[in-house]
Structure formats: structure tokens, C-alpha cells
Write a structure and sequence with these properties.
There is one protein chain. By secondary structure, this protein is an alpha/beta fold. It has a single domain, classed as Maf protein, CATH 3.90.950. Helices cover 31% and strands 25% of the residues. It contains six helices and six strands; from the N terminus they run βαβαβααβββαα. The protein has a six-stranded mixed β-sheet with strand order 2-1-3-4-5-6. The chain is globular, with a radius of gyration of 17 Å. 35% of the residues are buried. The structure holds inosinic acid. Inosinic acid (IMP) binds next to strand 3 and helix 3.
């Protein structure tokens, strides 16, 4: 079993990532290390800055996740401000903002930064869906009770972790990250470079 550190204070995110990486041979260790989340226009900029900052302070390979909910009728709000808006307005506040709004389209986006060897790699995942009319379900975390992924009638909070992972922004990004990790592993040579991708 290889080991990778997931730097996050969010147990829900950790659990989702663990369920995808463990079956492909990675023990995921959660560490809570606060790092700066800059005010930037994209999740990728936020994740990259955080990973570069951490890379100077943390030993070994790690991943971080920056994610957010982007609501079409609100011009992409709360987007990169999702964490702040969740703390201040919560799901109830978003439902109030969406009161009477017919266009319920929204998407979740996740960006993972992986520090592997000396390099930082970015993996992104998107999950289109819509904002529910009311909060439903008790599973998951954050905005899960108000988000219904495309093709579903249930919110993420009404699904098991496996079901959410099969559809979610995070599931998509982490599966891509997992594929990349698998491609980097050359099991028989101890002196292989940090990332060996074959020829
Ligand atoms: P951050 O990536 O930790 O900055 O999270 C941004 C905000 O979006 C937080 O309030 C999270 O709870 C929320 N969020 C991120 N991913 C998800 C998800 O998969 N489901 C529900 N809420 C999420």
C-alpha cells in the first residue's frame, strides 16, 4: 500500500477521496494543516497557490482540494466564495436567494493539486445539476442537501458516498488523479524518478 497525505480539515472530502484511492492501493492519511486560500478568480489558482505554499513546508507527497458551487442564475455565485457563503448564509441562504428563480441550473467544481516529487499537478472535475427547491437528505456535507446532479431526482445528501462519488465533481477529479498516480508507479525499480510514465 502506498501512502498519500490529503491536507484538509473536511472529513467529508477525506472520506470521499479515501473511497476512491484506497481500492487502487493508496492509503490516504488526513492532515489538518491550515494554508492560505487566496482571493482569486478560479479554483485552480487557489489550489495551485495553496499547494506551492505547502510544498515549501510539508515533506512528502500530498493532495489538496479546492471546490465550489457555481449557480447559473447568480452569475456563478458563490463560486470561489463558496466556503465563506456556506459559513455565513448556508444552504438556507442560497435557497432564499433562489426563491422564485426558475433557472435552477448549477454546477459543482473541484480542483485537486497533487504534489508528487518536486512537481505540482492539477486535476479538475465538474458535476452539472440544479438547485433543489428545499433541503433534502442527511448525508454528505456542505451544499449537498440542495444539489441535485444531472439525471437524478435525489440530492447528493440523499445518496451514499459511493453514489455521490460516481457522479460528483470530486469523484471525477480524483479518478483522473488516481489514473495519473497509477501511471507514475513503476513497481520493480527502486530508483525510479518521481513520475515515470513509460515510453
Ligand atoms: P473549500 O474547497 O473547502 O473551500 O470548500 C468550498 C465550499 O464548498 C465549502 O463550504 C464546502 O462545504 C462546499 N463544498 C465543496 N465540495 C462540496 C461537495 O461535494 N458537496 C457540498 N458542498 C461542497
Amino acid at each position: 500500500m502506498r501512502r498519500i497525505t490529503f491536507i484538509t480539515g473536511n472529513r467529508g472530502k477525506y472520506e470521499e477521496v479515501r473511497r476512491i484511492l484506497e481500492p487502487i492501493g493508496y492509503e490516504v492519511v488526513q492532515k489538518k494543516i491550515p494554508y492560505p486560500e487566496i482571493q482569486a478568480g478560479t479554483l485552480e489558482e487557489v489550489a495551485r497557490f495553496g499547494a506551492e505554499w505547502l510544498a515549501e513546508r510539508v515533506e512528502g507527497d500530498f493532495i489538496i482540494d479546492d471546490s465550489g458551487l457555481f449557480i447559473h442564475a447568480l452569475g456563478g455565485f458563490p463560486g470561489v466564495y463558496s466556503a465563506y457563503v456556506y459559513r455565513t448564509l448556508g444552504c438556507e441562504g442560497i435557497l432564499k436567494l433562489m426563491d422564485g428563480v426558475e433557472d435552477r441550473r448549477a454546477e459543482f467544481r473541484a480542483v485537486f493539486a497533487l504534489r508528487l516529487g518536486g512537481e505540482i499537478h492539477i486535476f479538475a472535475g465538474v458535476c452539472p445539476g440544479r438547485i433543489a427547491g428545499e433541503m433534502r437528505g442527511t448525508g454528505g456535507f456542505g451544499y449537498d442537501p440542495i444539489f441535485v446532479p444531472e439525471g437524478e431526482v435525489r440530492t447528493f445528501a440523499e445518496m451514499s458516498t459511493e453514489e455521490k462519488n460516481s457522479l460528483s465533481h470530486r469523484g471525477r477529479a480524483v479518478r483522473a488523479l488516481g489514473e495519473y498516480l497509477k501511471g507514475c508507479v513503476r513497481p520493480t525499480r527502486r530508483t525510479s524518478p518521481p513520475c515515470w510514465r513509460g515510453s
